[in-house]
Amino acid sequence: MLDKLTVMPQKSQELLQMYISNKIVDQCEKLQLQSATITKYVAEVLPGKNQSALSAASWARETVIQRLIFVRNVCENEEQRLLEKVHTEEERTHQSILTQRAHWTESLQKLATLRTYLVDMITNLDDHGLVHAEQEIFERTEAAEGILEPQESEKLNFNQKCVQSPLLHRLWASTVLCCTTGLEEIRVDEKTISPRLALSEDKKTLTFSPKAKTYPDCPDRFDHWPNALAAKAFHKGIHAWRVSVEKSCAYKLGVSYGSLQRKGPGNEARLGYNSCSWVFSRYDKEFRFSHDSQHQTVELIKCPMQIGVLVDFDGGEVLFYDPNSCIILHSHRETFTEPIYPVLAVADQSISLVQ
Predict the structure, then answer these.
(1) What is the pLDDT of residue 196?
(2) B30.2/SPRY domain: from which residue to which, for each copy (predicted)?
(3) Which of 60, 268, 331, 346 is disulfide-compatible with 261, CB 3.0–4.6 A?
(4) Most confident segment among 16-30, 154-168, 282-296, 316-330
């Protein structure tokens, strides 16, 4: 009986050892297969991937170079064309000025000669002689009356339109508005926000509030229209910023003078309805540019998610741009006579200045 009990554990131990041995063998086979797979990957796949990466990098590098060469050539050709137009316009203006100078110099000589003649008549002739010379004096003075006074003429002014170029315009706007280093750091002046607006802590997001909020009374605050001005004004140079508008179906954005009226429901404080503001606006699916109650419809295929604003103060231009599609939405020429502020208005959801 004892012998039987001793044999049973020995068999169990042998079975256990066999089981463990089989497990180890299986594991070794798996490791061998895994090693073979890795070896094949390193020997066959990685070299192919490396060659593929080298080829792709070479293609990408060549694409960048070729496209930039093309752009550079186009820009150089456009530069040459525009500079030639500038030179031609400069020559035309210069020639017009020379022609005018010669004309008026001759006129001055005629007038001086006539004056000398008249003074000589008065000095040397008696009354009888003056009466006798009346007809000659009349004819000479009548000729002088035909010499008109100089008038302002556009022919004497350099025509800035000679440098208008859709290509240059688009490249310039794209470069400024699509390069984040060129964007201004704009923040809303909380003293100007309408009671219909709420301002985020970072002073970049305006949210429309159907119920008027209570803010401290301030002469700078808009008390009726849902408007707000930025804290900083621009009085020279080129400036650009972006506004996220994807959440709103009713907004305005652009620039205005600081002298814009702040109080009351009249057009003096309504953006785009006075001579102090220039804005791009959306109402549902209608887009337009407005200034001094003059409205221009802007036809868009889809609603922009962002709108870039580009101002050239010295060049006298405000431009609205879709940075996602690289499309100029509208451009307006204006001679700015006061510092201008970025201006915003929203009557649905929220809009935000993009960091």
Answers:
(1) 95
(2) 166-355
(3) 268
(4) 282-296
Q: Cα–Cα distances in Å, from 122 out to 111, 133, 137?
A: 16, 11, 11
Of the candidates 235, 196, 240, 158, the one whose C-alpha atom is nearest the C-alpha of residue 347 is 196
Region of 145 (left: φ > 0; alpha: ψ -120 to 50; beta: rest) is alpha
Question: Strands 227-229 and 317-322: what pairing?
Answer: unpaired
Contact by Cβ (8 Å): 316, 333: yes
Rounded to whole angstroms, the Cα distance separating 346 from 336 reads: 25
What does the domain layout of the chain look like in residue ranges?
1-147, 166-354
Give me the pLDDT at residue 301, please: 87
Q: Which token pair is 287?
A: 């887009």
The Cα–Cα gap between 140 and 114 comes to 7
Cα distance between residue 310 and residue 240, in whole Å: 4
pLDDT confidence bin for 137, thresholds 50/70/90: confident
Whole-number Å distance between alpha carbons of 225 and 57: 55
For 16, the token pair is 């256990």
Task: Answer for the pair 271, 229: CB distance below 8 angstroms, yes or no.
Answer: no
Three-state SS sequence of the chain: CHHHHHHHHHHHHHHHHHHHHHHHHHHHHHHHHHHHHHHHHHHHHHHHHHHHHHHHHHHHHHHHHHHHHHHHHHHHHHHHHHHHHHHHHHHHHHHHHHHHHHHHHHHHHHHHHHHHHHHHHHHHCCHHHHHHCHHHHHHHHHHHHCCCCCCCCHHHCCCHHHHCCHHHHHHHHHHHHCCHHHCCCCCECCCCCCCCEEECCCCCEEEECCCCCCCCCCCCCCCCCCEEEECCCECCCEEEEEEECCCCCEEEEEEEECCCCCCCCCHHHCCCCCCCEEEEEEECCEEEEEECCEEEECCCCCCCCEEEEEEECCCCEEEEEECCCCEEEEEEECCCCCCEEEEEEECCCEEEECC
